[in-house]
Amino acid sequence: MANNVFTITTAGPGLYEFTPQLLDWVRKSGHGDGLCTLFVRHTSASLLIQENADPDVQRDMNAYFQRLVPDADAPEMAYLTHRYEGPDDMPAHIKAALLPVSLSIPVMAGRLALGTWQGVYLFEHRTAPHRREVAAHLGG
């Protein structure tokens, strides 16, 4: 078994790929077959496996969720009351409730069983920069 915490620095809303760091950690662990479990340790960010070949995919995903759940200062969001940290606060919690906060990825022959165009992303939902932590566990 192996454990790790990945720290991902964000600069606002969007998808931040950390696949290379994850692949390196799994490779160095010496694990043959097993399961890699990831968990984001925040209530206003998510984890996704998404296409990593075309950056338009990440931009479109972010734009879609910004449109689906706009900031609390948008007229259609006037019903929100939780705004302690600004107009993006509660919408970030809603997005994190809609999207996964944990992922399980098979490890086969010492490698993540990701598809050709799949990458692992932290999805930042807050406007301000943050340092996010993703706890990782690799088990047999």
User: What is the total tally of β strands?
Assistant: 8
N-C termini distance: 7 Å
Topology pattern, helix = H, strand = E: EEHEEHHEEEE
Structural class: alpha+beta
Radius of gyration: 16 Å
Low-confidence stretches: none
- Put simply, the count of helices is 3
Biggest pleated sheet = 5 strands, antiparallel
| Average pLDDT level | 97
Inertia-based shape: elongated
Notes on the structure:
This protein has 140 residues and is α+β, with helices and mostly antiparallel strands. 25% of the residues lie in helices and 38% in strands. The protein has three helices and eight strands, in the order ββαββααββββ. It has helices at residues 19-29, 55-68, 89-98, and strands at residues 2-10, 14-17, 34-40, 45-51, 102-108, 111-112, 118-124, 130-139. The strands form two sheets. It has a five-stranded antiparallel sheet with strand order 1-8-3-5-6, with helices on one face. It has a three-stranded antiparallel sheet with strand order 2-7-4, with helices on both faces. β5 (102-108) and β6 (111-112) form a beta hairpin. It is elongated. It starts with a strand and ends with a strand. 26% of the residues are buried. The mean pLDDT is 97.
Key features of this structure:
single chain; 140 residues; alpha+beta; five-stranded antiparallel beta sheet; 3 helices
